[in-house]
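dude i think i finally got it to work??
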Amino acid sequence: MQHYFVSPEGLKEIESQQILAEGKFSITLFAAEEWKLLNGHLASAGSAGIDRVLGNLNPQGNSFNQRFERLHPSLFFIGYSDFADDTKEFAIYFFLSANDMTILRNDRLELPQINDWARRGLLTTPSDLAQLLGMEILEHHQRQLELLEDDVDRIEENILETPERWQRSEIINLHKKILGLKKSLNAHQTIFSRLAAMDNHDQGKPSWKDLVADTQQKLENARQTHELIEILMEAYQQAIDNRANDIMKVLTLLATILLPINLVTSFFGMNFEAMPLIHSPLGMPLFFGVSVLIVTAVLILFWRKHWLR
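look at this
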């Protein structure tokens, strides 16, 4: 368990008993093996509420259920989901009160970033920190959207060149990712909206309502990306259908070209003694000559009809 006092000089690690004595705003980090100490640290919420909340969480912080619960008139439990640089999703869970943010620590939480915010004077209350974390999360969601859009462009170029079966699998994977992003943004919008309803906004600082509006814009971007993926799937299916049509066209042309030869072969293949040219030494050369003439005539006809292009 680690305690930090937030001041304009940055984060200062302190002893737990110094929190109330030295400042109005503190950050407390609990490692997974220290969760059992939360009841004492958050005594105002009651052990039943905390135990219920913790019972539904993964200590490694890799559960992605966005959460908002009011455990006490002045204590809230909030869960965000964020993306790391390797595009893996992870959870950020914390308890929010008037003078303390208690974070269920995971290895991906960036304390240097929080320290920088404090030095810039952006942190005066725990709500400010929750809001800035929300802004960071939205930026990371936007980055995921941009990566998806880049993938859409890349797959579209491949489809225009040569449609392949592997492209369908990638499009389905993109569809799953965009649905997950939309679900995450919707959940965060609900959390931000509930916090905005309780916001006592200071002039000159970003508000939760600004964050809600920004989330709505990101959600609209996600919907547009979803539409692009749907259009990409239609383009892929159309390209596959066109290729199948081209194959059927070639097979049909071949069958049509060979049909007259098949008729001639079938005619001379009948077992009758009175067949013309049946005993003539010129029969075979004449047959091949007629076959070449028929094929040439059919090809010329198809060329003039523009069927070979």
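The mean pLDDT is 81.
im so relieved honestly
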